[in-house]
């Protein structure tokens, strides 16, 4: 967190609650759980004594709740002026304040002008209590604030008094799950069920969902799996510095996010594959200079304003900019003034990021007010070009079609390429891993005895079991390589749990008990050099596993003739009464 600005709360001569330099503001990042990118910051008021609720409670008793809240909101905007890089700002206002939108905007606009922000750069987080305001007045106030350009979010979902029907009436851009709900993840089934329901609601309505108070790696991993795309909390705060928030993320968090980004994913193009030259101009360029640039280059869709080091400061989408500065009075009013007044906070992404990360970034930050281009930067945040979202969407769609074509039609599992890539990645990262081969014993006998349909059912059941294992075991990747053969690569501490799911159960199809064989190869760091070598060493282990009666599991190591037979019990095939 970063403390930028100080205010003081007190009581004026007329008895009104005023705000003066005794309240500090901390800025907590709101991060994408898929990319790790900070997509916004929330301004949190921190009184010197007590907490913000004490301050607002005192203001309410004095009859000045709305005025005090408005003052805090405008001061939060002013306090954000020293952030680097600038990010969209989330500002908390109580529901009662949202019923006085004209007064709120009257104080916010000067603060926005002073900091160079636009209303579209602000997300107003509406906080409880909701029961003390008139519903119709609140809905009208939120409509006015939206028309002014502000984003609308509802805070404290799950622990406040927000009626769920208000979600349907307002359709907020974002809802934030209360920390009390998140604290129950991943073990409390009730909390898990509530989050799952809200995630489904947000998916169907296109609302963004954020989790507040993320404190553990297990919670973050659970949120990833539930599809909660935004989160904030001490786990995600990272290091802080004066004037901004410094990343990278804490190492465990970065690893979880990287795992989520790569789980089961086929290779997709990088952002750099879509790089186009950017039209850049100095950050102090006038509106007339930018207009002349657009006039001389009718094909460019936007201009990026950069600082002396080449870092993006603002973006100017062509259509919106020209609409603002042309017309009978637009040129006279704007020509000599800085063009940055009409700009947006730039959406940026690293050139070495994957194209799926870019689409996640757009999905997390787009309020339907931006153009088709995202600014691409290098490791020093210097602009190296732009990428067009429409081109990235088309490229990702083509990659996904190729990925779908590679899935086995029976199990919907990917082919061996998935395991091939994961093994090569682990070898390159100098990791220990286990590669395993699973197949059904005498599968032809199954088809000949109970029919092909029963055989297909068995393969589908095994495929679902493997898919569930991949979902529950974060270090596991699975592939269906054809027929009754499956490949798995997993962490050493997960192979036992995987074997228990596959070998320690009775497989039955059409009343016929079936056994399976699992051959596994423990690959220490440097013991194998490629997927091809690992598969060659695994082949004789597969034969050895199939020679063990009943469902079997054997384990071997490169360079050693010693093989451990860890399972092997009942006859290969028998009728189940």
UniProtKB/TrEMBL annotation:
SMART domains: EAL, GGDEF
Domain EAL, first and last residues per copy: 1-253
Single GO MF descriptor: cyclic-guanylate-specific phosphodiesterase activity
InterPro entries listed in its UniProt record: Cyclic-di-GMP_PDE-like, EAL_dom, EAL_sf, GGDEF_dom, Nucleotide_cyclase, Rev_trsase/Diguanyl_cyclase
Domain GGDEF: 431-568
Pfam families noted in UniProt: EAL, GGDEF
UniProt superkingdom: Bacteria
Database matches in NCBIfam families: GGDEF
Name of the protein in question: Diguanylate cyclase (GGDEF) domain-containing protein
Species of origin: Actinokineospora terrae
